[in-house]
Amino acid sequence: MGMGKEAVARIAPFLTALSHDPAQSGAWNDIGLRFFEQGRLQEAVAALRRSLCLQPDNPGTWSNLGSAHQYRGEPGAAVEAFHQALSRAPQLAAIHINLGNALLEQGGAEDAAAAYRTALVLEPGLARAEMNLAGASLYRPGARLDEILTHARRWSAAIAIPADPAPMPESLRIGLISADFRQHAVGNLTIPALEGLARLGHHLTLYSNSLREDGLTGRFKACAAQWRMVAGLDDARLDAQIRADGIGILIDLSGFSAGNRMTALARKPAPIQIASWVGYPSTTGAPAMDYILADRHQVPEGAEIFYSETVIRLPDSYVSFEPPAEAPELGEPPGVRLGYVTFGSFNALKKINSRVIAAWGRLMRDLPDSRLVMKALGLDCAATRLRFLNAFAAEGIGADRITLVGNSSIADHLAWMQRADLALDPFPYSGGRTTLEALWMGLPVVTLPSDSFASRHSLGYLSTIGLQQWVARNADHYVELNAALARDPAALTEWRRSLRDRMLNSPLADTDRFARDLDRALREVWRKRQ
């Protein structure tokens, strides 16, 4: 892949410096950073390692290398690089935050939280550490709703940005801001709703905070009255742009997740702001955010007190499902042919904590011929693969019963789902888009919800399609339900045959109905402010 003229221009000064003195470690570091910004991660890693060969004790370069490995989907290598950085500069809070991020990607939510707390000891009130601690709490077993809200409010207090609410415009214009208007769980779950709103006549302005685009991005651009690339704008300029566009309702799709612009939204550039739809299933704790979109399953009656935003409950599901075009036709469950059942895990590794592994280990011990396929970004990383193999070995499950698969195309991801008989749902952060894909591929999904929004995605989907019998009461019940399904090949065959029709005939896949429900909800909050 060649570089464009602008990309070449950005590294030209460093190449000139190296032509005079190839041993300039700083120039190699800067070249690595430029490659990182351009998404050329392999070249970034090579340049940063060249820099470290020349100056091995530079903690900044070690940290940069860790970030490059993490974005390559190599969290194990990232953890090692961040530890190297901290061995040289343990007082740098930013590196502890980076280490926490990499640990979280390996399923170490507790270790990640500890790293963020260390950063806060070093720099009390550090907003980035408070934000990441709030996000990590969604993955931590046993984290309470009041604890999650407290973390979010601490972040809001740390940024200390006074809101200056924009005036109400004369007509309703809806804005949405995200770094994920592309092939991504957020993109896939929002595009049918936005196309529906556009068909209903809404004027949509989409603010993209990412340079990454793909085929799905074209659909977003097509349904937008205005497409704004805002990745290069600072908070003040983004705030001014949203105000100039006369946005009446601004919907955030990121919350505290990567690529968010929460510090800009804290200024209140739109008079009505809806928090973190799809992208972050929790409260933001931010006074500038007025509402959060949910349904009766995600935020049940009585849980409103743990959200700083007013809860809007859509009548069915809080998202709509569009079947993936890449999905293959379904055959019989593989267990019918192989004579043993295969469980599948297709969620992000950060959702798979020690309690999840303990439950899955118990399940596999109860079915000694069973196998497990784990497929996730990060499993191409040797250190991360070893981490999970060791965790299962501690549960008495040998590596010969586990297949680990890393990143792939969407079509291959769905094809791997065909190789499983059931999909295993993690907890306390359940599957989102992954659960929907698994059900579409004919895989039963047993879920174990708790109180948090993040834990109740699968509960909501299963309830919407009438399969509440797959909702477990506790970890013992979770294992029992999965084991009962695994021991019934006739039932697995019937579920594989019928799940798609069940989804298509439910409100979950009725995108027009969902768009009308969302339209009514948005117009109602608009009417209340007139």
How would you portray this structure in words?
With 530 residues, the chain is an alpha/beta fold. It has three domains: 5-159, Tetratricopeptide repeat domain (Serine Threonine Protein Phosphatase 5, Tetratricopeptide repeat); 174-320 and 513-528, Rossmann fold; 334-509, Rossmann fold (3-Layer(aba) Sandwich). It has 22 helices and twelve strands. The strands form two sheets. It has a seven-stranded parallel sheet, covered by helices on one side. Strands 10-9-8-11-12 form a five-stranded parallel sheet, with helices on both faces. The model is unreliable at 1-8 (pLDDT under 50).
Low-confidence stretches: 1-8
Question: Helix coverage percent of residues?
Answer: 40-55%
- Note the overall shape: globular
**Average pLDDT value?**
94
Backbone structural class: alpha/beta
The number of distinct structural domains comes to 3
CATH superfamily caption of the largest domain: Glycogen Phosphorylase B
Distance between the termini: 53 Å
Q: Can you list the strand order of the major beta sheet? A: 3-2-1-4-5-6-7
CATH architecture of the largest domain: 3-Layer(aba) Sandwich
